Amino acid sequence: MDKKKKINRRDFIKQSTAIGAASFLSIELLSGCKEKPASTEKKGSDADIAVAQGEDYSNNTVKAVGILGGMQAFVPEGARVAILANPQRNNPGAFTKPEVLRAAITMCQQAGAGRIACISQLPDQNWEATGLKKVISDEGADLIIVTGSDESQFKTLPVPNGKVLTEAQIMNELFKYDVFIDMPITKDHAGNKFTGTMKNLMGLSSQKTNRSFHKQGWQTELNAIDHLEQCIADLNTVIQPDLCIVDATEFITTNGPFGPGEIIKPKKVIAGTDRVAVDSYCCSLWGLEGRDILQITKAHDHGLGEIDLSKVKIKEVSV
User: Fold this and answer.
1) Is 63:107 a contact under the CB 8 Å cutoff?
2) What are residue 154's phi and psi, to 5 degrees?
């Protein structure tokens, strides 16, 4: 870990006030898409989290999703699919691998998707530099770039169960699709110390919303970091991916989110629908637990998933 940071992951947890017990209220999650198909119930799966490890990152992706019943368990015939990958920077370990995205698009096509689009606020040059734009073009998918500062391109949603966030502006483009696949790379982050499935959803919210997440001192001050983490958890109460596919093949553990930084190479792809459990598993790749990251603990308090991996059915395969 980066010892130069004023507050590391474990120190932040130790210095923070104790977090109250989870309320597990019945929360109505908005899928963020036009309609959540009934087929997203993980047909034929005996696992909550699927993990595939190997040198072939494309094959890892196929195997991980296959454990959950295959992409057809999530993408009905003719469905419109939105994918949120992460082309943050072209530094090694800072962006979703092209092989992982290509495999996901191919599986959606094989499942009979009517349209597949990667949606983003990041500029075209990011997609070009990371090699992700070529994958999208080669596979016949679409790349839709939304201007984050143009509020007319976002829909304001109330966040009724938010503890800090009361409303969020979510890109209109998302609501044109039937299925939403969240596809981050797990990695270090300057403020909240961790990027995973839940942090990645900030890519759907407007610049105005995201600026409200960041108080002065958001990289170093406990109260400001706590605010950022709570906003991330609150945002996740109103957007629910149908499937999460996490690139944990090789990623930065310092100097995030842009890099360059120190890299570890677990060579894993993780798939699942429980964001709290998936992100907790990703923490374990760093020698951490879900409770070491505030956004994960706060999402668990919201009742969004299981933080205790001993209660989660995890199936791992070597490819």
Assistant:
1) no
2) -130, 150
